[in-house]
Design a protein that fits this description.
34% of the residues lie in helices and 18% in strands. By secondary structure, it is of the alpha/beta class. The strands form 2 sheets. Strands 3-2-4-7-1-8-11-10-9 form a 9-stranded mixed beta sheet, sandwiched between helices. It starts with 9 loop residues before the first strand and ends in a 5-residue tail after the last strand.
Amino acid sequence: MIDKKLRGAVAIAGVGQAGLGQAHGFTEMEILVQAAHRAVADAGLTMQDIDGIATASVSASMWAMPVIEHLGIKPTFVDSTMLGGSSFVAHLMPAIHALESGQCNAVLVCYGSTQRTSTMSRAEIGTIRSKLDPQPYEAPYNPLNPLSSYALVAARHMHQYGTRREHLAEVAVAARRWAQLNPEASQRDPLTIEEVLSSRMVSDPLSVRDCCLVTDGAGAYVLVRADRAKDLKQKPVYVLGNSTAVWNRQISSMADLTVTAAQQSGRLAFEMAGLAPKDIDVVELYDAFTINTILFLEDLGFCKKGEGGDFVSNGAIAPGGRLPVNTNGGGLSCIHPGMYGIFIMIEAVRQLRASCGERQIAGAETALVHGNGGTLSSQSTAILGTQAAL
């Protein structure tokens, strides 16, 4: 059961980023530490104020330990749950419980990756992963994962609901239009529907423009109890709802390739927040592939199942459209260092602080953040709000 008493009990007080795009000469730990210090300073705190930490990494199962060592902290709360890209949205609820129980007073959630400039290739990492995390019903076929899995989902959605490649292209173009308003975005060149459709096919029906970027990047945010947040440096952004759901690991174990566990995480997050999709001003979705955005808009209740393609058509989720989605440019055009979830948290906070400059959504008081991990394996939904939304 969702504890509605936790609604608004905790606020995000600081955010920070580092090493966006290409962090030549730096390790992932080094840019993580930079982002962490920026988030803590943004909150008006010092690293000595941090007594809780939540972090995860693709490459190290005991990642929290060296992070703690590098930051020089002695936390009384540690969470290193690893659920892939959704981890940094899923870290919210354990942190809320730790803060509310008095176990700690300030939780730092942080991540860093140099997957683009690392000396270890992504192919090497993939080989190691296949040994440490075998997927017995898929590995014998040697798929180009995660891409092949998402392509399978896209193909099924197209077959079942009549979704077209043009619909997927709408998602990519909308993301690029937002990125053009974001000076931090990696890809800001103009992009058209025709260019997406004619781009190199990677795994049918997904082209290279349907796939997220491969970048470096680090992000961090700081959580404190709501009463303390009011006395800190920044305008508090309150956590109104959060829920995490996992129904499968392998794509072949999904009961329906067009339905994700976002249906569960979204329903419970909305229930905790006491809100509905119509109440959300800004939507930040984990868009590792264009099909993700369509699936999550459906599963989170912004449109009916099978209607996602039509929903995103005609620039509906682009600047000036009916629903602002992925306002930083998303994983498709802004940044994607392997696990993207922390960056959508940061963008949502910035929107609710009204600090996004040219891409700012006027009067934004509520934001939905949705993280995805694995191959549609883990789903975590968070609903954030300003003081006015409490």
